[in-house]
Amino acid sequence: MVNGDYNIIWKETMNQIREELGEQEFAMWFNLEYLDASEDELTIGVPSTFYQDQVRQRYQPYIESKIRELIGKNLTISFIVQARPTEENPTRKPGEEKLTAAPAAKPAPSPVTATKKRHPQLRDDYTFDTYVVGDDNNFAFNAASAVARNPGTSNNYNPLLIYGGVGLGKTHLMQAIGHYIHDNFDNKVLYITAEGFMNEFLKLLGEKNMSAFKNKYRYVDALLIDDIHNLEKGDRTQEELFYTFDALYNAKKQMVFTCDRPISELKNMTARLKSRFEWGLSVDLKPPNYETRFAILKKKLETKNVTIPDEVIELVSKNVSSNVRDLEGALNKLTAYTELVKKPITLEIAQQQLKDVFASPKQSNLSIEIIQREVADHYLLSLTDLKGKKRTQSIVFPRQLAMYITRVLTEYSTIEIGQSFGGRDHSTVLHAYDKIEGMIRADPKVDSEIQNIMRTIKTHGAKS
Ligand code: ADP
Ligand code: MG
After folding, report:
1. Distance CA 231, CA 194 (A)
2. How far apart are CA 301 and CA 296, in angstroms?
3. Across residues 61-69, what is the average pLDDT?
4. Ligand 1 centre from 191 Cα, in Å?
5. Tens-digit pLDDT profile for residues 100-155
6. How crowded is residue 310: how many other Cβ atoms within 10 Å of its Cβ?
7. 151 CA to centre of ligand 1 in angstroms
8. Does 159 sit behind a cis peptide bond, omega within 30 degrees of 0 on the bond before it?
């Protein structure tokens, strides 16, 4: 067979898979590019290592079996990660491959954007184009883009739940979906915060005008509700959301929710509503890694009229690791400075301007290990015992305290904290947190002892 034949085989295989899996799943996972072939192997390009792992795990045998059905012969697939240059960054320095990797499944620019009115509730700048994709948010981005391109078409993606800590891009991604659906389809998109949803519900309920509420929320094509953890208090609102959910779900309308923690960690939410949030696809956003942080700063700079040297961007990327909002905050400080003082930013100036930002505990790259070591030292325990299985009181208390402090001082999720403490469940971490908090409230002596330990950790953590 000549190479062109393999290309045709690949295309046909993709066509069949698209039909079998549906547009949404296909859009998400088959951002694959035929590159080359030998007698018994096809070489296929994937946009990132993460994507490669996922496709291998989920689909490789499936794709290979499809090819076998088609041509009656075994072909193995081998993947190659290709960081595709973006339009703005056609060339990159060595070692920067990942920084500007194009979004894996970037939606095509909309042909109708120019003529369409902007959406009243969505921020203009929260689009897919301005969202930087790295290895850490690739999955969430792909899911969002698949949903945006094929809203409501598959129950596997309805609802889409995006969860993760503050400032990690949940609202941005959610609004990007909203923009895309609004611009590309003749669809009604409604974006609202959970708080707004609750206020409106209570207002119309008070006015005995529930039909207005139903008309508004049950006849949309896409409903985006931001920060659903804020619904925890409103029982009646939860009930109403439950009915709204079922109405939209049955009508095959797309829903997207965001939450600041895994659904299982929501305490005051009815079980039936919680389970619905997880009916479709849940994706979590993690704090961005160094490469992504660097790329985000670069991207944000494009829209501002200032130049900041790369070494300064490196400094900020290294020192601000908590979340994207803080990263932007640091950048804004620097750009405000140049605008005021009309001097270019140097490394020294940046260090000077940002010293408070860098010193704050959530910025200092405080690792779980530093906390564990400090707590273990304080109570004269070994690290192994602190993380281990022993349940004597002299060990259990320091262990719970270390979990508590980690939750207070870092952005790690309870799942991650549990894993770092000998693979414990996230509910164990929550239990530890509640218990220590109770003790602090009940006993000022415990409170001041813990404050002392935390202070030591902060100073040591900041130095390391
Ligand atoms: P969240 O809703 O999770 O608290 P936001 O969506 O409000 O976070 O994001 C905080 C800020 O960080 C916003 O200005 C957003 O544009 C920016 N941001 C977050 N993630 C990214 C990203 N991957 N690329 C570009 N900007 C991002
Ligand atoms: Mg938000």
Report:
1. 6
2. 9
3. 91
4. 17
5. 333 434 444 444 444 568 898 999 999 999 999 998 899 999 999 999 999 998 88
6. 13
7. 22
8. yes
DSSP state of 261: S
* Whole-number Å distance between alpha carbons of 38 and 3: 8
Return left, alpha or beta for 419; rule: phi > 0 is left, psi -120 to 50 is alpha, else beta: alpha
Two structure tokens written together for 156: 């596997």
d(CA 221, CA 152): 8
Does residue 224 have its Cβ closer than 6 Å to ligand 1? no
How far is residue 464's CA from residue 455's CA, in Å, rounded to a whole number? 14
Contacts of 136 (CB under 8 A, 6+ apart): 285, 286, 287, 288, 289, 292
Q: Is 405 helix (H, G, I), strand (E, B) or coil?
A: helix
- Burial state string for 370-401 with b = 16 or more CB within 10 A and e = fewer than 16: bbbbbbbebbebeeebbbeeeeeeebebbbbb
Give residue 334's Cα distance to chain centre.
26
**What is d(CA 383, CA 380) in angstroms, rounded to the nearest whole number?**
10
Least confident of 49-58, 82-91, 413-422, 446-455: 82-91
Which pLDDT tens digit goes with each residue over 330-375?
999 999 888 888 888 999 999 999 988 887 655 546 788 889 999 9
Q: Please, are residues 418 and 404 in contact by the beta-carbon 8 Å criterion? A: no
* Residue 38, CA distances (Å) to 42, 59, 60, 78, 174 in order: 7, 21, 18, 11, 42
Distance CA 321, CA 288 (A): 7
Q: Which two tokens stand for residue 141?
A: 């981005």
Cα 11 from Cα 386, distance rounded (Å): 55
- The finding on whether 140 has its CB within 6 A of some atom of ligand 1 is no
Any ligand 1 atom below 6 A from CB of 134: no
Angle separating helix axes 170-184 and 138-149, nearest 10 degrees: 20
d(CA 418, CA 428): 7
Annotate 21-49 with b (16+ C-beta within 10 A) or e (fewer): beebbbbbbbbbebeebeeeebbbbbbbe
CA–CA dist 374, 383 (Å, integer):
10
Confirm if 299 and 130 have CB atoms less than 8 A apart: yes
Q: How far is the CA of 170 from the centre of ligand 1 (A)?
A: 7
- The residue whose C-alpha atom lies closest to atom 16 belonging to ligand 1 is 172
CB atoms within 10 A of CB 289: 15
Q: Which residue has the tokens 């895994």?
A: 262
Token reading at 411: 């952005």
Check if the beta carbon of residue 310 is closer than 8 Å to that of residue 155.
no
Kindly tell me the sign of the dihedral angle through the C-alpha atoms of 140, 143, 149, 155.
negative
Query: How many residues does this entry show for the chain?
Result: 464
